[in-house]
Amino acid sequence: MASHGLAYDGCNFFRQRLVLSTLSGKRVKIKNIRSKDDDPGLRDFEASFIRLLDKVTNGSRIEINQTGTVLFYQPGLLSGGPVEHDCNTQRSIGYYLEALLMLAPFMKTPLRATLKGVTNDPLDPTVDLLKSTALPLMKTFGIDGEGFDLKVVKRGMAPGGGGEVVFTCPVRRTIRPVQLTDPGKIKRIRGVAYSVRVSPQMANRLVESTRSILNKFIPDIYIYTDHMKGANSGKSPGFGLTLVAETLNGSFLSAEMSSTPQGQGGPILPEDLGRNCAKMLLEEVYRGGCVDSSNQSLALLLMTLGQQDVSKVLLGPLSPYTIEFLRHIKDFFQTMFKIEVQKPSEDERKGGDKVLMTCVGVGYSNINKTIK
Amino acid sequence: MDRKVKEQKRHQQKHSGPKVEKKKLKRQGGSAEDDERKRNPKAFAVQSAVRMAKTFHRAQDIKTKKHHIPLVDRTPLEPPPVVIVVVGPPKVGKSTLIRCLIKNFTRQKLGDICGPVTVVSGKKRRLTFMECNNDINTMIDLAKVADLVLMLIDASFGFEMETFEFLNICQVHGFPRIMGVLTHLDSFKNNKTLRKTKKNLKHRFWTEVYQGAKLFYLSGMVYGEYQTQEVKNLGRFISVMKFRPLVWQTSHPYVLVDRMEDLTDPERFRTDPRCDRTVSLYGYLRGTHLKNKGQVHIPGVGDFEVADVNFLPDPCSLPDAQKKRALNEKERLLYAPMAGVGGVVYDKDAVYIDLPASHVKQQQEEVRPTTELVQSLIDTHATVDAKMAASEVSLFSGSATLDPADIDEQSEVKEEEQAWDPNTQRNRRKVVFAEKEEGSDVSGSSDEDEDDESDDGDQEEDEDEDNLSTFLKEARAKSDTSKKNVREPPQVKKQKLEERKEEIPVFADSEDELEMSEEEGEAGRPGDSGNCSEESDDDEEAEDDNDENSEDEVEFPRHNHNSAEFILLFLSTGALKWKDGLQQKASEAFLRQQEADPNLRKLVYGPVVEAENGAGEEEELGGLFRVSRPQNSKKVQANAFDCSRFHPDTSHNWDLEEMLNSIRDCFVTGKWEEGQDAATLLKEDEELYGDFEDMETGEVHKGQTGQQDPAEVGPVYLQNSENDDHDDEVEERLVKANDDEVQKKKRMEKKRRLKERFDAEYDDGDATYFDDLKEEMQKQAELNRAEFEDVDDGTRVQYEGFRPGMYVRLEIPSLPCEFVTNFDPHYPIILGGLSSSEGNIGYLQMRLKKHRWHNRILKTRDPLILSLGWRRFQTIPLYHIEDHNGRHRLLKYTPQHMHCGASIWGPVTPQGTGFLAVQSVAGTKANFRIAATGVILDLDKSVTVVKKLKLIGYPSKIFKNTCFVKGMFNTVLEVAKFEGASVRTVSGIRGQIKKALSTPPGAYRATFEDRLLMSDIVFLRSWYPVSVPQLYNPVTSLLLPVGQKDSWAGMRTLGQLKHDLGIRTKPNTDSLYKPVVRAQRRFNPLHIPKELQKALPFKSKPKQQQPKGKMPRDLQRPTVIREPQEKKVAALAAYQTQGVPAAEKKQEEAKLKRHKEARKKLYRVMGQMDQKRQRSSLKGAPQDD
């Protein structure tokens, strides 16, 4: 039973490797993790991520050497169920949640993960963004139904954290192939302007400035203000904005920005933040595609794990993270994507080049789910 | 689809003549008469609503029963041959049948049926016949790959166990189509018995397969063959049969191997005869897409990594599409390499010529149109040595000539290969291409030795290539701007050669192939942080023949399909015409490639990923620095920040108006496409629905077809005011009531159109969920087919893997040597593809039922051989049953007639997969070999089986309801763990453990619901988790020596071991059965106190109950002993006095008794009536119950 493993160098794309390893059942060895660094080995947030992985799986073998520069991971089976995890505050919950989104549909029992830590920081996709883009995306793949939800119970800004998110996801045996080739036109823009431990006026100022830019395009804009107080407001002050553009065909493009964490860099005006965020949304619209740029890898993964049918999805330009993810998919599942560039025609004013990704699913079936 | 449907010639309808008259008459007069419902409405009236509902329900039930869950049709356009497995007990006529069928399809006779035999049976179908022997291993393996099973039954004998075993195997592993064939029917002399037997067998067969399953009768033999007509009929049946997709087969790729070659370096197995072999296996790919470098399981051998897969030209291809009904002789191909048919076989690097002594040459020519080639190859033989000696081979001008040692080595290899005769008893010689040694992609070939012609060719080509290389260098120097393909000049020459090598075939081919070749050349070096290398990545190393020009070989796998063509070209033209203008072509292609945009695909998967990092310039500047570059930057990259955010392009300034304008159309407020524009849509609607006639006023409102007044324009138009092209459209004002005729016509037309549209929308009213689903699947299937249709095969296999129907060659690097040395073509070799996680191992939980024909129940922890997925393996199951609280309780034995759970340690297999169990695969000792069947329920890395454990203790001290119990535990700690646990005594008194006592250790205080006795035993019921023994032992039956392949024996059961070693266990004496000796029980007399005695009624007084004591002696009267005379007298006297009247007396007594009874009854009834009356009078009203 020599199911051969894969070996990698360095800690980059750490999550991808572990997630794909878990899904494919191939063991993976990551060497030279920051071996030349002053502070070698795995960071706390990576260790925390490994612990989370250990919690949702059964029978995983994880070996880390003394210095933490070499990691060996032999995946077990995904068990799911209620999981509670204190995410390290070096990274936001989005970091952990992105991986969980990929794993959750393939558990033995429906996952109910309570993640505690930083809900919003400027580095990673925030929980609001994932909630508004990743979840509808997964719904198109047939991961739907009762108990598919992401709930922000408490909001905790970086660096203090103190936020809490509950993610529940039903299990699926197979994933549906999709044909997302036409994103459609944007019919409305929604958003959340949040603020904790600062004046509630901040959120309103964010909304005002954002609208000033986006109103040039579409009148249907509504940005919710979300001011959390007391126990729900976490440990650090901050504010931010998540914008989502919904198209007629049900795809979601999003952009977000949050204030710089307390004690790291200079303060930022909510007006600037709102405007910049709106511009980022425009950038995202310019990139276009049916899938948000931060969810490209999720979409590609679910396409790969689909039935043995052709799936297509139109993306904006591929992010470096996605490109690496494609390579990893090839390593773990031997699936290559057909990548075609669609150049916009002359008279169209629909942003930049799009990329049409086509693949044949591997016919993955959830081997963790019990049948009765 | 529509294009394919040929336009049929329309029916010419007659307009005049007697027939038309008749029809007209019929239509007119018949309408009333024909419709019975109208003529006789009563007969069709509803009689009973209930009955109607019932019939309706029934009809619906039948309709729904026909539904299957619709599946996406994934059958490829050119499907692989249908696997027909011929099964039956020995001596039933399997080989004869296959031989007859082959003769029927191909007009050829095949002597020995070894391995799969593929024939072309029709324009769209090929068949692969495989004989299944009586070994249960073979039966299991073949049942998994069969599409159709021909089940041969000896009618003169009846059913044999093998038949039923095979049927059961089939049932477990998905049920392929099964057709029964009765043979030996000529042994019946009596026609009636024949008919009866046929009927009996048929009905039994039907109960096993399905009612109405086809059973074929082969009535008798003619000259050792079945009757031609019957075989022909059978063949027809087979060639039109439809097959159902089986779950396992459609979700896994598999190959029924029809050819095997050992590629091991001869030197290696000369030095170490037991070294692992590199073997290439060939066959049609079936099932689903096969990915390169996947994992396969070979049943009977084990799991292996595939080093390389490539597809070869179809050796038994379907005829080209032609408009004719039958196949001609040339198209009736037969392919059976294991049986020694097939003439010439092209491999990727060699040609094999089969010269069987028994075969007639003509026949070969029939089979293979390429025999001229062989002939020519043989003809060239004479000149080889001389020319070879003359030739000095240099690959390229720049490179060194091949040194003599090299050549020596090669020639040595060649000799080895020539001598190499793989365990098949065939006169077979391998022709080694000169190319293999020389390392050019184009090759000449000879029958035995090196071919000078080809060598010459190579030389020429080498020169060409030399020129080419210089030219390329120039070209490269010119087009220095591009990033990819830039190799540093001072690098090792060899590597450059390699690079060029890879490109050369590309010039002849398409661009896509070019990409592929580049990519494969760079395998294992993908991109920026790509730093990934598969552990078993070095397929290339595996391939090379330890000579120096190994790099040259690397490219072979891709071009194998070309090589054959190359040879043909070579020989037919004599000159190398294809090389004309090669240089020019090459340069063109090269430049084209250089100037092309960086392909995204290459960016992602290919070697040019560096470009995206902006490090390209550095790279460009100096190939010199390239070597050191990755070391530095890679590390940084490898440990970069891991974030999925895609940071926005800084070049976009979103304050500018043109930037904002560039995405205007992404919003609903922007401009729409022609077809979706609201204005155009509205206009269309207007045309359709716009005009109507007011019936009251007679006014006709006309829809605007063209220009409109600004006042009429609705709000939608206002919104789309920029879309003003409708202004300059047709200027047509309507003229009212001018010509009504035209208007009317128009209206009618519009109405008709409207109705059509309405119909289209609503009239397919029966469209249920099922239909929708089916349509969706249909769409998906069409998309699947269409997506990669126009991509060439080389590229296509990279995207979707090798598709079923391809003839593939799989190279497996490390097969055990026994596989080759003990190779027996009679045994099927199956390559079963495994999906990504199926190579792992874990705990499996399954539902299992002992087969009802297996005559023993199964014992927990007895090793069992399971056939699951592709695999056959021995494992140790634990049987358990689920209690109502969800607990899995261990069972010692499987229940007799019930399902139970089983947990094993075994290969991860998807849930829902069926399995079967046998106790041993060796021999046919058992009556019915299949011990159990079942299905996988769950996979896990831990098990939850528990067994009951009763801890026993004894009371040491008893207070009221409290008791000290000792002997259950040994330490205080143990007790502490069980505090609060409920205990019970044998007599059923329940209690609870309270607390440990200090002395003796392990004793504790417990409280009970009642007072215990010292003789009570206290026990604690607990559950102890059981661990499943981790035994996974694949059945390696294929590795056994020829003739002993059915004698695989694995781990023995405990019982077998004891039996074999002659060990008898000494049983516990308590458990032995002994005759039951019961002591006579004595009871003390019942003592009733005097007081009580007094109170008792008379008849219950003990005095009355006491048996009468012995008569005192003085009261005893002496016995009178009569003399015989007296006896006689007394008897007579007695007869006189009592004799006859005795009966009368009896009668009288009976009469009296009857009377008495009757009277009693009467009185009782009267008394009751009295009572009733009294009661009713007392209560006043009759309130009886």
From TrEMBL, chain A:
Gene3D superfamilies xref list: RNA 3'-terminal phosphate cyclase domain (3.65.10.20), RNA 3'-terminal phosphate cyclase, insert domain (3.30.360.20)
A Pfam family assignment: RTC_insert
All copies of domain RNA 3'-terminal phosphate cyclase, residue ranges: 8-339
Keywords: Nucleus, Ribosome biogenesis
GO molecular function terms listed in the Swiss-Prot or TrEMBL record: RNA endonuclease activity
Predominant location category: nucleus
GO BP annotation list: endonucleolytic cleavage of tricistronic rRNA transcript (SSU-rRNA, 5.8S rRNA, LSU-rRNA); ribosomal small subunit biogenesis
Domain RNA 3'-terminal phosphate cyclase insert: 181-285
Compartments it resides in: Nucleus, Nucleolus
InterPro entries named in the record: RNA3'-term_phos_cycl_insert, RNA3'_phos_cyclase_dom, RNA3'_phos_cyclase_dom_sf, RNA3'_term_phos_cyc, RNA3'_term_phos_cyc_type_2, RNA3'_term_phos_cycl-like_CS, RNA3'P_cycl/enolpyr_Trfase_a/b, RPTC_insert
GO cellular component: nucleolus
Subunit structure: Part of the small subunit (SSU) processome, composed of more than 70 proteins and the RNA chaperone small nucleolar RNA (snoRNA) U3. Interacts with BMS1.
Family, similarity comment: Belongs to the RNA 3'-terminal cyclase family. Type 2 subfamily.
PANTHER family per the UniProt record, alphabetical: RNA 3' TERMINAL PHOSPHATE CYCLASE, RNA 3'-TERMINAL PHOSPHATE CYCLASE-LIKE PROTEIN
Role this protein plays: As part of the small subunit (SSU) processome, it plays a role in 40S-ribosomal-subunit biogenesis in the early pre-rRNA processing steps at sites A0, A1 and A2 that are required for proper maturation of the 18S RNA. Activates BMS1 by promoting GDP/GTP exchange. Does not have cyclase activity.
UniProt-listed NCBIfam families: 18S_RNA_Rcl1p
Name of the protein in its database record: RNA 3'-terminal phosphate cyclase-like protein
Species for this entry: Sparus aurata (Gilthead sea bream)
Gene that this sequence comes from: RCL1
From TrEMBL, chain B:
Basic and acidic residues: bias regions: 473-504
Gene3D superfamilies assigned to the protein according to its UniProt record, in alphabetical order: P-loop containing nucleotide triphosphate hydrolases (3.40.50.300)
Residues annotated as transmembrane: none
Subcellular compartments: Nucleus, Nucleolus
Comp. bias (Acidic residues): 446-467, 509-521, 534-554
Biased composition (Low complexity): 1097-1109
GO BP terms, alphabetized: endonucleolytic cleavage of tricistronic rRNA transcript (SSU-rRNA, 5.8S rRNA, LSU-rRNA); maturation of SSU-rRNA from tricistronic rRNA transcript (SSU-rRNA, 5.8S rRNA, LSU-rRNA)
Name recorded for this polypeptide: BMS1 ribosome biogenesis factor
The UniProt record lists the keyword Transmembrane helix: no
InterPro entries: AARP2CN, Bms1/Tsr1, Bms1_N, BMS1_TSR1_C, G_Bms1/Tsr1_dom, P-loop_NTPase
Primary location: nucleus
Keyword Transferase attached: no
Location of the region described as Disordered in the Swiss-Prot/TrEMBL record: 1-43, 408-558, 1091-1185
Biased composition (Basic residues): 1-27, 1152-1163
Organism: Sparus aurata (Gilthead sea bream)
Domain Bms1-type G: 79-244
Taxonomic lineage: Eukaryota, Metazoa, Chordata, Craniata, Vertebrata
Family that this chain belongs to: Belongs to the TRAFAC class translation factor GTPase superfamily. Bms1-like GTPase family. BMS1 subfamily.
An MF annotation (GO) of this entry: GTP binding
